[in-house]
Amino acid sequence: MRCKRILTIAVVWSMLLINEVVGIRFVIDRDECLSHNVEYEGDNVHVAFVVIKSETMWHFAEDGVDLVIKGPGDEHIHELLDRTSEKYEFLAPRKGVYRFCFTNKSPHHETIDFDVHVSHLAYHDQHAKDEHFTPLFEQISRLEEALYNIQFEQHWLEAETDRQAIVNEGMSKRAVHKAIIESAALIGASILQVYLLRHLFERKLRTSRV
């Protein structure tokens, strides 16, 4: 019984080490496709992305990007249109390589933070020889899923924070540049006004002397 318990704990911990959240940050021009292998039919696939920034600080339009999810047979799973930030999850209809294709409609390059996490409850594929271990498998699997969901959510929130920080910084720079341009225009207008008044005064002075 003790050996069986040790073996069970070892299997569970190996499950915790194998499962992981995959995250990537990349720059997209027009179209970009990423792939991820789902090893078991019925696995829960979590997807999240955030458009972090564009190539120019003067571009703040909420254009968003399109995401199309395709299955192993190139079948259409789901699509998200004109989104700057989104989370989505689905049950894999079958095992195989799933493709996540992004389309950027903006004329600017966009930086995207993308995460994918596959949840697999391994105890469904194993026949417990001792009925007392079944609740243990279930509890640990639920704990595993909760931990990875927290990690997944945290990464998504960090990407959202990065996006907002970049947008705020860009808007601050734009406000400063706008103030500088307005100040320069005001100074130029003042100089022109002084020049015109001086020219008009000199002209009147010459006329009065004549």
UniProtKB/TrEMBL annotation:
InterPro entries: Emp24-like (IPR015720), GOLD_dom (IPR009038), GOLD_dom_sf (IPR036598). Belongs to the EMP24/GP25L family. The keyword Metal-binding does not apply. The keyword Signal applies. This is GOLD domain-containing protein. GO terms for cellular component: endomembrane system; membrane. It is a single-pass membrane protein; Single-pass type I membrane protein. Pfam families: EMP24_GP25L (PF01105). Its main location: membrane. PROSITE patterns: GOLD. SMART domains: EMP24_GP25L. Keywords: Membrane, Signal, Transmembrane, Transmembrane helix. Residues 1-23 form the signal peptide. It is found in: Endomembrane system; Membrane. It comes from Lactuca virosa.
